[in-house]
Specification:
The chain has a single domain, classed as Beta Barrel (OB fold (Dihydrolipoamide Acetyltransferase, E2P)), CATH 2.40.50.140. It has 1 helix and 6 strands, in the order E-E-E-E-H-E-E. Strands 1-3-4-6-5 form a 5-stranded mixed beta barrel. The protein starts with 5 loop residues before the first strand and ends in a 6-residue tail after the last strand.
Amino acid sequence: MAINEARIDGTIYTDPRPLAENSGIVEFILCHQHWDVNGTVLFIPVEMYEALAEMDQAKKGKPVLVIGKLVEKQWIDSTTGEVRSAPRLRAVELKDLKPSHN
């Protein structure tokens, strides 16, 4: 049995935009700072259902925890005709990481 669950925290770097017309799916870029010796920053493409994005008020600059699974996006390079691929995160849940002010 394979387990494919990813939990990545970061800041929403771009406002969600439709992945394709009338698809009901939006995509955004998550900026994740990996605190190693070099202070690496990763920009991770995330896709999620539009209704979930609206419900969680996903917007640029919001700190979140994205829970989902890694998937592969494939396309054909228009210049070379070769098949290309890249990983992305398919979100099933967003959790607000903004501290609450009680």
